Amino acid sequence: MAKEDSIIQEKVETTDRTSLQEPPLYKVLLHNDDYTTMEFVVMILQTVFQKNIDEATRIMLNVHHQGRGIAGIFTLEVGETKVALVHHMARKNQFPLKCSLEKEC
To answer: How confident is the model at residue 3, as a pLDDT?
Structure first.
């Protein structure tokens, strides 16, 4: 049997990857409006973006005072999912909360 094994030999080609590129990152932004309550924005930040109460409150105040605030930085697919989830939860609760993606520089 050893003779048969030595007759059949397979070549395996391997290539070395010299560099891997990180995927581009996107900021998920919440936008201010005159109808969505501050409490709802804090709840969104805690549930969708896993922020603690202090950080969620700080981001909510940025949204309120500056017109928008960064909820988090993610890859494109994760960011799109979070934007869709925020819009779904806002519509379900009858709020016009806007959430968007912006490519990080």
So the answer is: 57
Three-state DSSP string of the chain: CHHHHHHCCCCCCCCCCCCCCCCCEEEEEEECCCCCCHHHHHHHHHHCCCCCHHHHHHHHHHHHHHCEEEEEEEEHHHHHHHHHHHHHHHHHCCCCCEEEEEECC
Its domain, for residue 40, covers 30-103
Domains: count for the chain: 1
- Asked whether residue 12 is assigned to any structural domain, the reply reads no
Enter the pTM of the model: 0.80
